[in-house]
Amino acid sequence: MAAAGGARRPPTLADHYRTTPGRHLQVTAEGRVSLSAAGAEQGRFYGDLAAGAAAWRASPLWREATSFADRVFAGAHACAFCPHWAACRGCFRLPDPARDACAGWRAAFDEVRQSGRAVRAAAAARGRG
Fold first, then answer.
1. Is the predicted pLDDT of residue 92 greater than 60, yes or no?
2. Which of 8, 11, 13 is nearest to 109 (CA)?
3. pTM
4. Within a 13 Å sphere around the CA of 1, how many CA atoms are in the beta-carbon half?
5. Residues contacting residue 30 through CB under 8 Å, at least 6 positions apart
6. What's the CA gap between 111 and 129, in Å, rounded?
7. 93 contact partners, CB below 8 Å, separation of at least 6
8. Cys-Cys link to 13, which of 70, 88, 96, 118 (CB 3.0-4.6 A)?
9. How far apart are CA 99 and CA 108, in angstroms?
10. What torsion, rounded to 10 degrees, do the Cα atoms 33, 36, 37, 38 define?
11. Each residue of 43-59: b (16+ CB within 10 Å) or e?
């Protein structure tokens, strides 16, 4: 995914989790466009296929989904203080910031981080780090 100035940033879990605005869409048989199958089931639609992407981006739901990071930091949300923000970008809370589906992932990220530290320390001890 391109960042400002054309630079590429490393992928995050949000890039792989199928609810990234602008990257993933769910289109119903009737042509209604949503962020995900779950969003469609909840009746959360940007608009319809015939209206086109410009119309979807003007919808309140699109603005809500794409302003998630801004809301996280402005509202001092728990994700703003999470050491794993750089990896997940809050993907387990989109589109519902009140939902906490990431406790297990935080533990997994902690394990990965600890393992990385151990590998670096072992390499340094052998003179390879």
1. yes
2. 13
3. 0.52
4. 12
5. 48
6. 21
7. 68, 77, 79, 99, 100, 101, 102
8. 88
9. 18
10. -120
11. ebbbbeeeeeeeebeee
